[in-house]
Amino acid sequence: QVQLVESGGGLVQAGGSLRLSCAASGIIFGFLSVDWYRQAPGKQRELVAAIRGGSTRYADSVKGRFTISRDNAKNTAYLQMNSLRPEDTAVYYCHTVVRQNDYWGQGTQVTVSS
Predict the structure, then answer these.
(1) Which of 5, 8, 24, 101 is the most exposed place for a label (fewest CB within 10 A)?
(2) Which residues of 19-34 are buried (b: 16+ CB within 10 A; e: fewer)?
(3) How many angstroms from the chain centroid is the CA of residue 20?
(4) Contact 68, 50 (CB under 8 A)
(5) Per-residue pLDDT tens for 8-61?
């Protein structure tokens, strides 16, 4: 059974940092692509960052501030978020695809105060 569990969200002041974690079970993360999405109230879920093999890509709004990575030994992916802004406030979700099936974590709330 595939399970993704996010952690690390919280309340932070603008300019601060947070590191989100996504722990996977039932799959070997190192063989898969992993994405971080976010959804703010009243808005559609959007892709924030993705890692595939050694390649990464980011939404324009977070380039230079966020870094996606993973530790294959821990079967965990991370999203390091620096220079946070109020507009980064959202629920952040970890996502992967296994055999054409989408798997999502439960989400972790990030709130950035001005």
Answers:
(1) 101
(2) ebbbbbeebebeebeb
(3) 6
(4) yes
(5) 999 999 999 999 999 999 988 888 899 999 999 999 999 999 999 889 999 999
